[in-house]
Structures are given as structure tokens and as C-alpha cells.
Amino acid sequence: MFSKVYGPVFTLYLGRKPAVVLHGYEAVKEAFIDHGEEFAGRGTIPVFDKLKKNCGLVFSSGRTWKEMRRFSLMTLRNFGMGKRSIEDRVQEEARCLVNELRKTNGVPCDPTFILGCAPCNVICSIVFKNRFDYKDQEFLTFIDILNENIAILSSPWIQLCNNFPVIIDYLPGSHRKLLKNFVFAKHYFLAKVIQHQESLDINNPRDFIDCFLIKMEQEKHNPKTEFTCENLIVTASDLFAAGTETTSTTLRYSLLLLLKYPEVTGCFQLLAITNKAAMNIVEHVPLRHGGASFGCVSKSGIAESSGSPAKVQEEIDRVIGRHRSPCMRDRNHMPYTDAVLHEIQRYIDLLPTSLPHAVTCDMKFRDYLIPKGTTVIASLTSLLYDDKEFPNPERFDPNHFLDESGKFKKSDYFSPFSTGKRICVGEGLARAELFLFLTTILQNFNLKSPVDLKDLDITPVANGFVSVPPKFQICFIPI
Predict the structure, then answer these.
(1) What subcellular compartments does it reside in (predicted)?
(2) Which of 159, 235, 240, 306 has its CB 3.0 to 4.6 Å from that of 295, i.e. a possible disulfide?
């Protein structure tokens, strides 16, 4: 670990360009919070820079970023982020998700696609005002593209392209597919914008695109306006991608961890049986006692793999019950569930280095002179895996977020959405989705693994950009 040799602030060369690395809570807080304005630039990412060209929300800097962020936050709040209306949207989608999971009939399935559809539909309802049926071909195409993009972005090849940008223009490789996917998305959003322009009612904005078009009209005589069609297309696609992929990946990883650690939820494994005749004679009957799920029983009466009492499901039974949908108010009365959700996000370390920042001016930081434009990389892993804040950080343990009396315990080190000026715009929405989707799933289903738990791998298959969980199968057994 370089930080043990060079300290919490050091320079690392990415190709031929230097980058300043921040390691540990104190260094990250001092830079991104205490000196937030100076560290609010976006570091160079050649693959994205080629397409985004300082447009949109995620990969822009300076005045463009400030205007897009301010407008996006205001519009998301107006359309309900953090309010009851967005909660209604997520609850509705959670019910649709449960209906789709019931269609699996308890048969082992790969949850990747279904778990991508739910958060995608929520952000679609905000950006486009409409959701899609889970069988809609347009919808299927977009989910596939998003999953493909994350896999490509997390590959060593893309890291090589970003460190040696000349590769992008002159060599073949997966970056060409990535660029092709971005162009497809850009054309798709342009078509949506044209449709909205044709039916726009300035007195009755329906969604994010309408609000942006109205702002464009108001600013049409301003030669320096940032409210252009190009910024609209890129900002809408940024919201769409960021609002879908990170949440769906976290949901997928959540189910994998809940399978791996049945003591957390009481999820239990379905022992792998290859003989179909043998499979037919086993009837899995969930046992519930006092709201807890203990395991499953075969016709012989012998219990198969059994976890500890289902702490999360027990809390769901006690606080929510079985006859109404979970709501955000419930979270305040569910400390263990809240701790599990926080521990999942800590443990999976979804974005180990977040996205690179850049300093917006020449500055002195901890006796170092950092020139304007220098890329700054914050190790979020160093916060989420700090062994003083989270004892035994390599261990999945919800007690990291519980005090001695079992109450939820906040931590300043918890930063899966980054921190400071460039903290994720959709943090509130993502937190609502994770709580409502997962509690609704566990309210309606027991989870089973078709393989022995010791064979269930939870090691990320790629974490150059995003920590992607390995492929796995799961059975959703209706309660």
C-alpha cells in the first residue's frame, strides 16, 4: 500500500500524467469538504471526454457543471426526490418488481435483468414521465447496453485507454463498442427531446426534459447560456445511466450477500440436487415462527441448511407486517435493517475511487503545491475499510452500524456516494430505492441458493471502475 510508505497524500503517475491520491478520512475530508470549491473539478477521463466534451452533469467542470448540478437538484426535488411523490413511484415499482419475481415460480434465475428494470423505471418516470413494461424491447435493449457499458468500463483495457489516450483513436478494442453504445444513447435521447418539444406545455411540465426545455426557452437570448440541446441530451443520459446502473448493481450484490450470510436474514440454501427424480420428492416448506424464517424441511422431516432467526424479516414482520407496502418512515424503526443496508454498501465498495476530481486553481494543500487541472483521486476504500472505524473491515458485519443497545449508529466514514461538492446528485433517491426494494422483496420472498453456500463466490469480477458482483442464481420462494 503506497500510503504506508508515502503517507495519506502522494502522487501516482497514470501513464505520463501525475495524479494526486488522497488516502484516509482526514485527507479526503480536508480536500473535498474543507476545500470543496478548489477540488470540485472533474479529472480527465479520455474515453468520456471524447464523447461528453464538458457537457452534462457527471463529467463536466466549471460553470457547465455548476449550472447543470443546480438545475438537476432543483428539478429532482420539484419532482419529488426526498418527498412523498418519489416514494410513491418507488413503491409502485417495488410492487411491479414483486409481480415479476413471482413469475419465476421459485426456479433458480439470474436476477441481473429484473433488478436492472426496477431502478431504471423509477428514473425513467422522472426523466421521461413514463415507465416501461419489463418485456418492452426498447427497455430490454437499454438494460443490456447499461450492463455491457459497466462491464467494459471496469475492464483493464479501458484503464489502459484512459492512461494512454492515443489508443482510443488508433487501435481496435472494447472501447469502440463503448463509444458505439454512447452514440446510440445520444440518438435515443435526442428523439425523446424532439417528442417533448412537439407536445410541450410550458404551464404544465411533465418531467425533467420538459423543465429543461422551458429553461432553454427562458435563456434563449443569453449568448453564454449553458441550457443547450447538447447539455440536455447529455444530462438526461447521465441521470439515466447513473440512476440505473449503480442502484441495480448494489441491489444485485445485496441479494448475493444475503444469500451468503443467512444469519442476517434467515435466507437459506436449496441444496444442489442433480437427480430430477430426487428433486421431485423434496418439498421445501418455509418455517416461520414469530416472524422469523428458520430454514426448509424435506418430506422426510429433516431440516436442510438452516440460518439463524431472520433478523431482517423479523423486523419487517414486527414494524411493517404483511399487509401494507414498506414506506420510508419505517426505516427509523428498523435499526437492524438500516445497518444491514449500510453494511452492504460499505462492504461491496461499489466505486473504490469514485470518479476523479481536479483542482480548479493552483493551490497549496498540506505543504504540497498542486497545479490547476491536476487530477485528484480519493480512495473511498480507505474510508469504508478503515479498521479503526470498522473493526475487521474484511468481514461482513451489520454491527459496524449498531451501538451497544442495538440502535443504528451513523459514521462519517460511510461515503459510498462520495462526499463534498460532487457528492452524487441522486443519493436520496438511491437510498430510498435500496430500502424500499429490498424490504419489499424480503417481505414477500424467502431467498434460496441452488448451490452450497460455501461454493457461492462473492468476489467482484471487476473493480477497475465499479465493483461488479459475479454471476449467480437465486430462487425467490413466495412467503
Answers:
(1) Endoplasmic reticulum membrane; Microsome membrane
(2) 306
